[in-house]
Amino acid sequence: MYRLDIAAFILLLMNFINKNKLFPLSRKELLLGFASGVFLALHFYFWIASLKYTSIASSVVLVSTNPFFVVVLSLILMKEKISPKVVIALIASFVGTVIITASDGNLLSEKIDKTSLFGDILAIIGAFSVSFYFIIGSKLRKNMDTNRYVTLVYTFAAIFITILAIFANEDIIHYSSRDFSFIFLLAIVPQLIGHTAFNWALKYLKATAVAITTLGEIIGSTVLAYIFFQQTIDLWQSIGILFIMSAIVISFRYGKV
């Protein structure tokens, strides 16, 4: 909630200071912007909740299945043609994801308990939600600049998730200054820089291609886990990373609108 609230506040403040015109917006743009914001909020709501019940690796890998949902939704909702080379990228990303998942603590051989299963389901719902976010974003970004789009969507997402948190009876006040410093960093780096970069790319790449690039999160989390938590990267993880990197390169090369 705070991640989105802070990001939205900063954007609104910057637009006010720079006297940028965010309006007028058509009714269709407002409705699609609201829908995109809701799905972004749901993505964070379910994905971050999943971290309480399942491992970081499982959560990140499962939430990164969003390209598969994006492809299906693009075919059904937008009748979008998928380049054969992007299909190859999807296959490569799927193989890489499976390899990393299997190698992460031998997940395939472990007995699945109900708690982990619940967390996995939450992560998958998070992936499904962000897929709609990308699909709607690709539609809006065709005629809307990045600043207007992210300000609109982040603001709607912030309002929606704040209402969710209040109705869920969450304690949203009693955090330490250290907690808030990390929350502030979440708003600045992953949200304002990371997600905004994805939204910028939606004007120039198909939603499918942009969704595939989010698989880089698996690589990033693996590398950072090694740096900060001394979690080593084994051979199979390295192979999986290479598959995913190949998928990202292919999606950028052949996934242009």
UniProtKB/TrEMBL annotation:
It comes from the Bacteria. The chain crosses the membrane at residues 30-50, 56-77, 86-103, 115-137, 149-168, 180-202, 209-229, 235-255. GO terms for cellular component: membrane. Keywords: Membrane, Transmembrane, Transmembrane helix. Coiled coil: none annotated. Gene3D superfamilies: 1.10.3730.20. Residues 2-101, 118-252 form the EamA domain. InterPro entries: EamA_dom (IPR000620), EmrE-like (IPR037185). The keyword Membrane applies. PANTHER family: ACYL-MALONYL CONDENSING ENZYME-RELATED, EAMA DOMAIN-CONTAINING PROTEIN. This is Permease of the drug/metabolite transporter (DMT) superfamily. It comes from Desulfurella multipotens.
